[in-house]
Design brief:
Layout: E1 2-7, H1 14-23, H2 28-36, E2 43-51, E3 54-62, H3 72-80, H4 86-107, H5 122-138, E4 142-145, E5 148-149, E6 151-152, E7 154-157, E8 160-163, H6 167-173, E9 178-179, E10 185-186, H7 190-198, E11 202-203, E12 209-218, E13 229-237, E14 245-257, H8 262-274, E15 279-286, E16 292-300, H9 305-315, E17 322-340, E18 343-351, E19 357-362, H10 364-374, H11 378-395
Parallel strand pairs: 1-4, 4-11, 5-9
Antiparallel strand pairs: 1-13, 2-3, 6-10, 7-8, 12-13, 14-16, 14-17, 15-16, 17-18, 18-19
Helix pairs in contact: 1-5, 1-7, 2-5, 3-4, 4-5, 4-6, 4-7, 5-7, 6-7, 8-9, 10-11
Amino acid sequence: MKIAHFDAFSGIAGDMTVAALIDAGAPAETLFAGLDSLGTGARFSVERVKRHGIAASKFNVEFEHEHKHRHLPHIVKMIEASALPETAKSNAVHVFEVLGAAEAQVHGVPIEKVHFHEVGAVDTIVDIVCSAVGAEILGVDRWLASPLNVGSGTVKCQHGTLPVPAPATLALLGDAPVYAAGPPMERVTPTGASVLRMLDVHYQPLPAMRVKARGYGAGGRDTPGEPNLLRLLVGELTESAGESFAEEPIAIIETVIDDSNPQVLAYVSELLLEAGAWDVYRAAVQMKKGRTGVQMTVLCHPDCVSALEEIVFRETTTIGLHWRLENKRSLKREFVEVSTAWGDVRVKVARWPSGEIANASPEFEDCRRLAKGHSIPLKHVMQGAMLAFAAKKEQR
């Protein structure tokens, strides 16, 4: 499978996306030929620049600035009358429909009454169309992205000074994972957010892949402290990241507590598991000034971080915690049901990429239920389940 991964550590904008696509191999001449057919009268160019010492491509659009506002039908007509590939036309039109819906939602008006102010400017039309064409040229099967650095502070637009991310951008991002880092500035623009929607991007850490092409798209400013770049990696999923292993992001929440009753921590662990944590474990640690404490670690899906953090703060004496995102890779697992003398038990089976069994273990809750129901030792049920599984495997 051919994949592409946006590393949006400095956000994403339309011109950065186009530049990254060109830098990764989409021919600029082909893109410009399609853009000329839009009839905007704009001129396009790509130049090599450096952002904090890193060479990158920068996409430039020159045109006579307009003060008129465009409605959705005007933009759709412009795109459909062009000589762009049909798929690119369809994708670009869809983007503007999504943009219109976002603006309508923010301002509380019907979509047909939406005036495309900044969004209707020539450079935005060019960025979206060029992104649609460039993405089609690269022939990527699946688009991925890191969490998005949206920036902070405020931004000036048609409706005045607004907080970052701007309301329309926030609506377009939906449930995409976001964060703020670096000096105050707008780092994710409405155009950048809409391109991500167009590509149906999945947000996850960089998977195991063989990189065949890389592109760096430069933003307009050389920001202090970090390169203002969008990085795009294009390549193939490795075998281990394809059908052989299960991969997903995992959030890890940790805190260290030295003044809590162990019974309370056991209770909190139960609450966390009930609230969606994948696992909770505690370990004794030696803290400063010779104090003994307990490190509580919570493993969960990134979407659960906020809810689980609230439980930790509410139910324990901690006043601080930290969390991070990591990659989770696991063997493919399945359940096989076996029959024992006391009832059915599910056996969890993990397989190597080759299909061979790596491990098998009886489901604890099934075994405990049968042991209690028949008043027999738990270990006997577990042993019986594994014997039944071995027999079933032999029959296969």
